[in-house]
Design brief:
Blueprint (H helix, E strand, L loop, with lengths): L6 H12 L4 H11 L1 H5 L2 H6 L6 E2 L14 H17 L9 H22 L8 H8 L8 H11 L11 H4 L2 H23 L4 H23 L6 E6 L5 E7 L1 H8 L7 E5 L10 E5 L13 E3 L2 H13 L4 E5 L5 E2 L4 E2 L6 H5 L7 H6 L7 E11 L2 E8 L11 E5 H7 E7 L5 H7 L4 E3 L13
Parallel strand pairs: 4-6, 5-14, 9-12
Antiparallel strand pairs: 1-10, 2-3, 4-13, 5-6, 7-10, 7-13, 8-9, 10-11, 11-12
Helix pairs in contact: 6-10, 6-11, 10-11
Amino acid sequence: MTKKIDKVLVEAFSKKLHDYPQNQVIKDAIMKNGIQASVQNNDSVVSMNHVFSEEIKTGKVTNQKQSGRCWMFAALNTFTHKLNDLFNLKDFELSQNYTNFWDKFEKANYFLENILDTVEEPLDGRLVSWLLETPQQDGGQWDMFVSLIDKYGVVPKQVMPETFHSSNSAQLNQLLDATLRKDAAELRRLHGEGKPEAELQQVKEGMLSDIYTLLVYTLGEPPQTFDFEFRDEDHAFHREESITPHAFFEKYIGINLHDYVSVINAPTGDKPYEQTYTVDRLGNVVDGTPIRYLNVEMETLKDLAVKQIKDNESVWFGCDVGQDSNRKDGIMDTALFDYEQAFGFSPGMSKADRLDFKDGLLTHAMVLTGVNLVDNKPNRWKVENSWGEKVGDKGYFVMSDEWMNEYTYQVVVHKKYLSEELKQAWEQEPVVLKPWDPMGSLAIMK
């Protein structure tokens, strides 16, 4: 049964509004200044001090500009913290464009393989519709980054610097997605004509050749070898000739990425704690590192992050950055905006309800580089972002512990910090989630 809005109902709502004595002041303030500027809680701003009891030495923040590559910027930032410290460098950067090139190329192949794998599925079914909605994008996940490093290594930024389309990805993404949808239509048509799989794979290779050309023209061609030259903080000059991207990673970074685990907090009824999960058809490299999460309670997740920070190692983490945050001031706090006082109600939901009812999602990846402990408990966290120096404290954000509880969904930590029970849980066979599950979201915030 439906009920329409009638005049009596609207008049009742209007009377209720005008019975509230402060309504005119609130309305004027919001209409002139906007919602968040009008309801910002300055006590929250004061409490979010950019000072931390545990803090990792870092450097100048990076800038992903108008692209959604936060996940790879954050991951590469964790590498450069180690590299700068070991080799006495300052503000050194690895090439985000190099990993971006291979990610887009691999995502194109991953998409086309999914299209070939679903040729018998209905075109208007949920699975194929989901695949076609976003053939590829800038966003990604930690395990997708691991797959790229395993296969392609890394290079310094000076070897493959940013281009117009690496920093401003909208036009490139639009053209890539249009091309891949056209390719999907062709592959499904050929299958419908009864063409054998070997012929479809041959056609797909031609499609990938076109994608490679497009990526080279817009991002540049990745080097197979390069010369690495730098001067350290003591002004000593160093040169390494004809090194490969893999050899560079092994020599100058030397991290076993498979020693790190993705720990999540998803407190929904369908995801019991101390269970591993994966997401169907989520990835970039065919036969690469599969997506795997270990779901734990929030206190456990935070304890693991604190342990790694105390050992002077930064922590890649994924969160819903647009919630209760001020980009300009670099503040993330659940008390930052007082909607209740202004409107008489709050849009707040539980973390589980936000996930279940599509109001919460992992949208952005950053790096935890510090934490403030009081009686060995965190009350705020230092966050290295990748939005340049013009936001926050020269690009660094401060996050309240309550914000961490509500809007952080994932951290990546070394498995040595896991308890024996969690290590055993990590080794179990993962539950396969649907492709559109909230835990299948990709960090892509610009």
